[in-house]
Amino acid sequence: MAKLNYWNATWSLDEKQCPCDIHFLDYLKEKAVKGKDVFHMGTGNHHIIGLETAKDGSGNHVFGITASKEEYDDYVKLLIDNARLGFSYKCYFGDIYQIDRRLMPDLDFATLFHIGEYRTAENDKYGALTDDEMTFVLADKLRPGGEIHFYTGSFAYDKGLAAGKALVAKRGFTDAGIYKTLHIFRKGK
Length: 189
Ligand SMILES: C[S@@+](CC[C@H](N)C(=O)[O-])C[C@H]1O[C@@H](n2cnc3c(N)ncnc32)[C@H](O)[C@@H]1O
Fold this sequence. Notes:
single chain, alpha/beta, Rossmann fold, 7-stranded mixed sheet, 22% strand, binds S-adenosylmethionine
């Protein structure tokens, strides 16, 4: 029986090495984004995007995914200690390449900062989606004008860029350019 290709590690916040989550929070703040729904790939054990949006008064909601058991355990602890967090920040454990369009809510933003970093032949053993297939599930759940953000600092940014180009070619997105370390693709209105 095929085993899940989970991420057997945990990641602490390190702005120098990996500023993508911080840059995404900066973007939301700079653009004064309010009342929007965000799907976030790769929470880290710090869960900064869910935690910050829960207290910044923006009314933004975050649905996070982690493939790390430790990071998921950290979310469970955070939620037990702060029940109100559960209204605006939900996190689940799983492989994003098993994302299910029937179970996904409508969205305004999706962060695919770590696309392609850990997808291997192990995922193929259980029929996981490809980078493009997974990206299209999220693209189709975005409301008009919604955005998918890739991380230019990822060691697999070439895969993010390829998925972005596929969004332009096959879903009519526009390349909305770079913000700090993030590459933004926008859905038509
Ligand atoms: C290097 S950590 C970065 C965490 C955070 N974004 C940051 O920059 O501090 C990579 C993250 O991607 C998540 N991840 C990697 N592959 C994944 C997959 N196939 N499905 C869901 N999450 C995945 C890991 O669980 C982890 O949270």
